[in-house]
Task: inverse folding
C-alpha cells in the first residue's frame, strides 16, 4: 500500500488516497482516533470512485466524527480508472439488452455479471485489509458495508476479521451466493428499497432468509434504488457502534 495524497477535512478527519499495487483506494481516519480505531470497509457501487466520492466521504466523515471509526474504500475491478474488463462489459451489455426488451434476466446473465466480479474483488479487499490493519491507529474490529451485496456475502462468509456487516440489497444475486449466505454467522443489518427498479424484491427477501446469522435485521423503506432515507446512515452507524465499539 502506497499513500499518494492527503488532506484534512472538516470534522477533524484525515483523508488519504492510496494505491494497493495498481488499485486506487481512499482511507479516512479521525485525527483524534484511539490507538486502535475500529475500521469499516465501504464497498462502492461499480461506477468509479470519482462518481460516488461525495457519498462515500460523507459516510466516512460521519462515522469518524460521531463514533471515532476509520473507513476505507477500494476501486472495484473494471471500474473508474482501472483497466476495462471485456467480459464484465459484455455481461452488462447483455443485462441492458434483456431489460430494455422486457425479457426475463436469466441465471446465466446474473452469474456472468456477478460471480467473476466477486471472485476478483474479494481477494483484493482481503489484501487491503491486511495492510490497513497494519497501519498505526487502526486495530479493528472490522465492519463491512455497502456495494454489491454478493461481494459482502462472500466477505462475511470467508473473512474472519469482519465482525459485522451492513449490506445493501440493491443488486442481482446468483444462486451460488444464496448457498454462501447460509455460512454467514456474523451480525447483519440489511437495507432494502421496497421498489428498487431492476432488482427483484423477493430475491432480496429470500437472501435475507438464507443468512445463517442469529442476529440479522432488515430495514425496508419505500422508494426506488436511489431513494434511501438519510436517517438510514445513522441506523447503520448505531449498528456498527453496538458491534465494533
Result:
Amino acid at each position: 500500500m502506497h499513500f499518494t495524497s492527503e488532506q484534512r477535512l472538516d470534522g477533524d478527519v484525515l483523508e488519504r488516497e492510496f494505491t494497493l499495487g495498481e488499485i486506487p483506494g481512499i482511507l479516512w481516519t479521525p485525527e483524534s482516533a484511539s490507538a486502535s480505531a475500529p475500521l469499516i470497509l465501504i464497498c462502492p457501487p461499480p461506477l468509479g470512485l470519482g462518481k460516488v466520492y461525495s457519498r462515500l466521504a460523507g459516510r466516512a466523515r460521519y462515522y469518524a466524527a460521531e463514533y471515532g471509526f476509520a473507513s476505507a474504500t477500494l476501486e472495484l475491478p473494471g471500474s473508474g480508472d482501472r483497466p476495462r474488463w471485456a467480459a464484465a462489459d459484455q455481461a452488462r451489455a447483455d443485462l441492458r439488452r434483456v431489460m430494455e426488451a422486457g425479457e426475463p434476466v436469466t441465471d446465466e446473465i446474473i452469474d456472468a455479471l456477478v460471480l467473476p466480479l466477486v471472485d476478483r474483488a474479494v481477494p483484493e479487499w482481503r489484501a487491503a485489509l491486511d495492510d490497513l490493519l497494519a497501519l498505526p491507529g487502526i486495530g479493528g474490529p472490522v465492519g463491512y458495508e455497502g456495494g454489491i451485496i454478493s461481494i459482502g456475502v462472500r466477505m462475511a462468509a470467508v473473512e474472519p476479521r469482519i465482525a459485522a456487516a451492513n449490506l445493501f440489497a440493491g443488486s442481482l444475486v446468483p444462486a451460488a451466493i444464496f448457498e454462501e449466505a447460509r455460512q454467514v454467522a456474523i451480525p447483519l443489518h440489511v437495507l432494502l428499497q421496497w421498489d428498487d427498479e431492476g432488482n427483484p424484491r423477493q430475491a432480496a427477501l429470500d437472501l435475507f432468509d438464507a443468512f445463517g446469522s442469529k442476529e440479522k435485521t432488515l430495514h425496508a423503506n419505500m422508494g426506488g434504488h436511489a431513494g434511501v432515507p438519510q436517517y438510514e446512515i445513522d441506523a447503520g452507524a448505531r449498528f456498527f457502534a453496538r458491534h465494533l465499539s
Q: What stands out?
A: The helical segments are 49-67, 86-100, 107-133, 149-158, 175-181, 201-210, 231-244. DSSP finds seven helices and nine strands in the chain. The longest strand covers residues 137-146. The mean pLDDT is 92.
